[in-house]
User: What shape does this take?
Amino acid sequence: MNKTIKSPEDIDWEYFWEEKLKSQENTFKKDWNKEAPHFAKRVKQDEYMENLFNKMRIDSELTAIDLGCGEGSITIPLSKLVKNVTAVDSSEKMLEILEEKINKENIENITIINETIEDVSIEKVKKHDIVLASRSFNGIVPIIEAIKKINEIANKYVYITLFGPNNWKFERDFYKSIGKNNDHFAPYYYLFNILVSMGINPNVENLEIQKKRSYESVHDAMENGKWNLDSFNEDEKIKLRSYLKKNLIINEDGRLEHPDDKADWVLIWWKKE
Assistant: This one.
């Protein structure tokens, strides 16, 4: 980037967003088909859903689309609050789990589409009152093109949740100890500035997650914590086990936890003009 920056308006936030993502090692990227069963278990641990819904404008007459819906931890409860939901995800395994849940609960107002967020368009999914990208937008490139498309899909509101500044606090110390960088995503305020540069004036709120993650054992913490074990060699796995044994403490329920091991999510949302 050779251009001299003379004022904040000269900053190309899209460039910095994408440069940050380029720093990701291939080994850090997750296979979401493989991750699906672990993800389904992990997302149930805190008050994310309740806090998110409390900040959204939801009623039974609205339609919604859940981009990056995963196995349906948000899709299914959302479907009980709105007229209908279109669930979109790139992982076939995630969608298989979602379809099993839909069939088990005899839900009739969810439509499933196997597609990436980047390739979603109004021609493929039509317009919806609410567009939700829950925990699925941090790795999107090209970012401005994706925002334009989801903004076109939305009739009323767009809601996006991104990693907050403390989301990787517990994991960061371990990665640093083994000489690895896990800081591969742009901070949420990059997206805020991108939106402002596009003429969108978003609201920013922290979802204020308080509940810490907890585990049955060190093995459970390795398998269901936020560790991409496929990127670790055997020595690093041994070091991780040692790190968890040393740092996790037993809570009043007899489970293992750490004060810094909890989610931190920021909600960025706007109302369509």
